[in-house]
Amino acid sequence: MVPCIQARDISLTFKPKNRDSVTALKELTLDVAKGEFVSLVGPSGCGKSTFLNVLLGLLKPDGGEIRLNGKQITGPGQERAMVFQEFGLLPWRTVLANVELGLELKGVQALVRRERAMELIKMAGLAGFASHYPHELSGGMKQRVGLARALVTDPEVLLMDEPFAALDAQTRDLMQMELLQIWDRTKKTVVFVTHSIEEAAYLSDRVIVISARPGRAKDVMKIALPRPRDYEMRLSAEFNDIKARIWASLKEELVTK
Amino acid sequence: MTGLANFYREKEAYLLGIGFIVFLLALWQCVPLLITLPRGYALFFTTPSRIAATFYRLLVEGQIQEHFYVSVAAFLSGLGIAIAVGLPFGIVMGRSRTLDALSDPYVTALNATPRLVWLPLFILWFGIGIWSKVMIVFVGAVFPLLINTYAGVKNVDRVLVNVVRSFGANEWQVMKVVVLPNSLPYIIVGLRLAIGRAILGVVVGEFFGSSKGLGFMIASAASNYKVDVVFAGVAIFMGLSLILTLSVKKLENSLARWRPETAKTF
Amino acid sequence: MGLKEEYHEYHRPILGMASVIGLILLWELTLTYLIPVDPFFFTKPSLIGTAFREQLFGERLWRDLAISSRAFIWGFSLSVIVGIPLGAVMGWRRRVEYTLDPLLTALYASPLVALAPLLIIFFGVGLLGKAVLVFLLAVFPFIFNTSAGVKAADPLLINVVRSFGGKELDLYLKVILPSTFPYIVAGARLAIGRGLVGIIVGEFYAASEGIGFAIQNYGDTYRLPDMFVGIIVLSAIAVALTELLRKAELMVAPWRAGEEIR
Predict the structure, then answer these.
(1) Is A175 inside a domain boundary?
(2) C13-21 long-range Cβ contacts below 8 angstroms, 24+ apart
(3) ipTM over 0.90
(4) Domain of A71?
């Protein structure tokens, strides 16, 4: 069976004006199966967010192939949606208008998209806040809007770029649990970028360690914990082992380069 | 007693401000009662009550209306053209780095130069009819609009553009959904500044080489030592300017509903 | 750096210069070869250049500039001396602000230039009338900007100086004035523009000397190249002053100086 996402030897170099060029990715190869939850961890600047943008279709790799269900990715598309670290909500739109954005851009009719958006707003636990503006919401709520917005077009793949990094620890834990619930219900394929080993281990089926810049897939670790995962699992010895393994691989990338 | 004290505390700012203005007007009114001015100065002196009376007389005699309409026509035409030119140019310059670099010297130079230097040239080209006024209003008003629109477009948050792009929006949709709404507050500030400049343009444009308009009325009254008429004219412009500026400020504030910080008047 | 990188680094000034040179060339060539020009309504760069050279070595231009500058400097200095302290007091004492703000805002929003004919007639066509006009126009940015600058002073720093026993004057000099500095520079930039308008209008209205008068006079006598020289000289001075202040703002200001206050 063709894996949902296939990346082969992806290379990408940034050439900014007035500065030296930066090779963000070098021959990165990885696969993601359909319905899988995969996390990418790696040191700062290793290119994980860059790779996510390649998957999204906003960046074109200089070399290598990237495929979704066998077809090459050439640009953004309805089957992929991203949740951003800085939330990226349009501040002049209400929560409802923000969530509707994807459908609006596709030309879906107003009544239809409102209904769908309200469904997702309810699922994200924001019922009653549809007419609020982003600046009236807390960080956790803003990210729920981001999540609802990403799901409104019913994409196959959810790309999440450190979505909880800007939240406080408690909200973060809460959002992680809710994310798992939503994922369980909607069965999306998720590619999740994070700095937090704990978060990666808790959420994913597999964790991929990306090497320091230029980034390539260094290690792939299967997380053999049962689902559904509850918070207590994080306190188990097994969990610590998993974290230790990931850390051991990651540590090398942090120290030397 | 506490009722009054509370009232004062709440409205202190208004009371002090308006009170001061009233006080000054009263003082002004009383000057001729307090001192006698030497002949030379008395010619130039007038009081608020005389100004008001003159204003009323001009209104009733129908002298002011025609001047008023002429000035307003020049103002609106010039401002309209400035909006029609300034906004698109500002957007295009904001989006295209090449165009921005190409037009930068002109915008900088023209913006720094007092626009009124062009008045003799405009009078030469367009005569003393309404068109030279329209042009000077246009030239004065277009720059705040252009520059502020440009700033609004340039200032757009990259993350938001990426968000919208990630849903597959094309350039046009990016413009409509992100760039323009983001620029709107800047444009409104630009409009407020443009209004001030436009009024300036009308006033000075009508001082010279004109036979109609409030500015002309003021200038010819001044040379005939009709100080009342001068102040009446100035008061009209003042009133116009205040009303327009306050309206735009209200617009600014209503748009600020979605902004946690409103002080973008920098 | 290779040629391509050099272009990227300096592409703004390069394109800017190319644009100006291109326009001048286009203008000159069009009016020389393509369209016959009526000298009463149009002129071209070569003629302007000749006039420029003549004026540069003549005396009239310099005398005009000297006269205009004197009036401008007097008026501008007065607006600094009056505007900054007044703005400082307004920013520092809330009640003073409440009292003065509506009046000043109303005046600022009105076209005070409309009083120019009256002022010139009253004070005469010489230095005094123009200086008063410049003062009236230039004082407001100083007042409002200084006031905003004072209000923006960090209360923490004020407490620090107080805790070391600083008196009110110390607070003014050691904390408030320095933090106000960027705002004042921004205000100066705005004031220059408004002051120049005062000089121009004053000289248009009734003067026999000065750069504003010269421009209008050349216009009246259909001497277009000379008129353009005047406009360009004035423009160059205005740009130089404004850009100088902009650079000063960037050096002194932590935030990027941009649009106008109010």
Answers:
(1) no
(2) C14/B101, C15/B98, C15/B101, C15/B102, C15/B104, C16/B101, C16/B102, C16/B104, C16/B105, C17/B105, C18/B102, C19/B101, C19/B102, C19/B103, C19/B105, C19/B106, C20/B105, C20/B106
(3) no
(4) 1-76+157-163+188-257
